[in-house]
Amino acid sequence: QVQLQASGGGLVQTGGSLRLSCATSGFAFDDYAIGWFRQAPGKEREAVSGIKSGDGSTYYTDSVKGRFAISRDVAKNTVYLQMNSLMPEDSGVYYCARSGTSLYIATRPAEYEYWGQGTLVTVSS
Q1: What whole-number distance in Å separates Cα of residue 37 and Cα of residue 74?
Q2: Helices (DSSP H) in the chain: which residue ranges?
Q3: DSSP-based helix, strand, coil % in the chain, nearest 5
Q4: What pLDDT does residue 101 have?
Q5: Residue 115 and residue 97: Cα distance in Å, rounded?
Q6: In sequence order, which ranges of 15-69 are alpha helices (DSSP H)?
Q7: Phi-psi region for residue 13, left (φ > 0), alpha (ψ -120 to 50) or beta?
Q8: pLDDT tens per residue across span 11-22
Q9: How far is C-alpha 32 from the geometric centre of its chain's CA atoms?
């Protein structure tokens, strides 16, 4: 079965850091793109970052460029999201997901086929 498990969230102060992990199984890791999304209360889910597991190419939404870094460990079938200089507006439930295409890094939730359970990130002011 295709599974994705997000972990690493927590409560941090403004300016702090967290590293999220997305452990995957049940599919060829390097054949798909993995994306990170976040959803704040009352808001729509938005793309934060993504990576093509095979070639390592990446995507970042403008608001996190220079602060977040996505990476992957192919041997562990795991994708990471290092989040630095966190701000309250970064708060939300973070989800990792597997895209339905490896041609590009999709940014729409509807383009992702499988989702992890999400991990809560709260940044206090």
Answers
A1: 21
A2: none
A3: 10, 50, 40
A4: 80
A5: 4
A6: none
A7: beta
A8: 999 999 999 999
A9: 14
